[in-house]
Every structure is written in C-alpha cells, then in structure tokens.
Predict the 3D structure of the following.
Amino acid sequence: MINTNTNALGIIFPNVYDELVSELTNERLMASIPFASRYRMIDFVLSSMVNCGIDNITVLVRENYFSLLDHLGSGREWDLSRKNGGLNIFPPFAQKNTGIYSGKVGMIASVLGFLKSQKEKYVIMADANIAFNFDFKALLKEHIASGADVTAVYAKEELPSGLRKSDDLRKAMYYTLDFEDNHNRVNKIHINSQETGVQNYSMNIYVFEREQLIKMVNEAFIGGGVYLERDILLPRLNELNIQGYEYQEYIARITDLKSYFDENMRLLDDVNLSALFEKNSIYTKIRDDNPTRYVNGASAKNVMVADGCVIEGEIENCILFRGVKIGKGAKVRNAILMQDTVIEPGVDAEYIITDKKVTVTEGKELKGTDTFPIFVAKRQVV
C-alpha cells in the first residue's frame, strides 16, 4: 500500500442507489453487493482512496449495514486500523439527536462535529455504486491547480435506459453536467435528464474544502435541504467555481440487476479485467480457504473463479464467488453464483444470478435470457 499522507479525508455514502437493485439490497446495501468473484462494491472506492494516501475515511451508513460492518471490520485489510484517522463508520443514531436521513445533506450534517475536529484541508466524497481504480491524488492535484471551489467528476456515457424509464425518479436521482464554452466550469446541472446519446454523466464524486463544506451543509440543513446537488450546488452555480473533471478510464456502474449482470460478465474479457485491476491493488476482506478444486471430468471455459470452490460439472462464461460447489453432470453457463452456492448434480442452468447460500437441487433446469437473467434470493432452495 501507498502510505503517503494526502491532505484530504474521504467520505463514502454506501446506501445511495440501494433501491435500484432491490433484489440484491434486501438484506444489504449497495456498498456490500458482491462483485467480480471475491470483492464488494465498496472495495473499489475504499482501495482507491487508500492507494492515493487518504488514510482518514468516513463511511456514513443509513440502513441494512450489518453485512458492510462484517466486511469492513476494523479496516485492517485496507491498512486503516489506526489510532488517528483510519476507518470511521457512522451508523444512524450514532450521536444524540440524529436519525435516518434521506439525503447527503442530512447525513453530513449529522457528523459536522466530527468534520470540524479534523485537520485535513479537503474532503473527497464518493458513492459506492461504481467499480473503478481511481487516482484520487490526480483529482486533488487538478482541483488545487484549477482554483475551483468544488470539483465534480464525470464520465462521457449514455444514460442507462433503466434510469430514464424509472417510475419513481426520487429513488434514481442522477445528474448530468453542462459546461461554459471552451471551459471546464459547470454552468448547469441537470437532474434526471431524459436526453439520449452521450452525456456528461456525473459519477457523484466531489472535492470540497472542508471548512467551506461545513458552512454550506449547515446553511442548507437549517433551510430544509436534503440533496447535495439540488440544495447546495444548484443554487450556487453562479457563486461557486465548480470545475468538471473527466474520468476516461474503466468504470463499471451498477444501476439495475441487468447492469450488475452485464458489468460482471464484461470482466471475463481480459482487456476489461486488466483495466480494472492492474493499475493499483484492490483490497478486500480475507477469507482463508483452500484453492479451488477441479475434479476429474470437470470442464471450465472463460470463467472467473474464487478460492474454495469445488467443480465437478461444466461451467462456461461464469463468475463464481468463494465456496461455490458445482455437482457432477451439472451444466452452468452465463451465470453469477455468489458465495457458498450449491449446484447439485444434473442441474442445467443458464443466465442466472444466485445470491449467497442458494441451493439448486438435483436435476433442476433454470434458464433465463441475456436480457432477463433469473435471480434466486439469498438462502433459497430451488
């Protein structure tokens, strides 16, 4: 790990966009959704911050956070188990007169006392619905060089159709940016745009000066503000110098169950796998387990398999998490099987996603499609 101190602290919002993947967030939050065979979504933003020398990181959880607490523990795997700084997890009701807030303004307001006591000059905020290998040090350097009050990170992408078609836009607040001609200064922020084609699609990563953030959040919260973008940034577009920072490297953005399936499957391409993992290490909770065992007669083609698995049947185009068992004669194709899933002998399965500790009993046939994969909930027996 890189231990060079950076003059910034990190804030991660792990519950944002939970509602978009309700199948996977019934008992967990977005940040603890399993991804890429052995990781959780929060591992990517957390590891990226640590790799860039940010060693004071706060996670503001709202609900369904037991699995995240179990995953993060003391932060030891990320070198964040420290006397000063390190990993700080603030659940709701952590302090007197605080509760469950619906937006970032209230969540930040609930820890203003903590923020006031910190020494770092800058605050970098991020959600946990995007897998990337981000250089936060380059972002902070650009923020300082530009003289910006706020820097907003975006990527040039088409807006996911699932977001634009959402019946409840409040659960799918997303943002696109417009800039002044020939400049990076943001002059418009669009909320839930219905435009098609490539947009300046916000990644919800922002850099603020800590003292300025405290002042603006305090004012917005007193005035009934809820959302960072709508209630702090939008009313101050003319007042603040908000600079855009384009991110041009690999990202995997989770916006619904279909995107979750597709983004995992993209990692079966070595080019995408290298783009996500080769730049810097991505850390995760260690689970000591045996190497995966392939029994005589087993077949594996184009798969990503974690440790602790036992393969007796056939797997193709699959993502297997730790401890998965594939029985003799079973055929599994185009599937994501989470931790400790058991596929019994003779099963024929295609285009499926199983949550943790699912059992598909002997001889069953499960077949979804590439546009509508079948999802089996946690601990279910099929």
Remarks:
- The mean pLDDT is 92.
- The first strand starts at residue 8 and ends at 13.
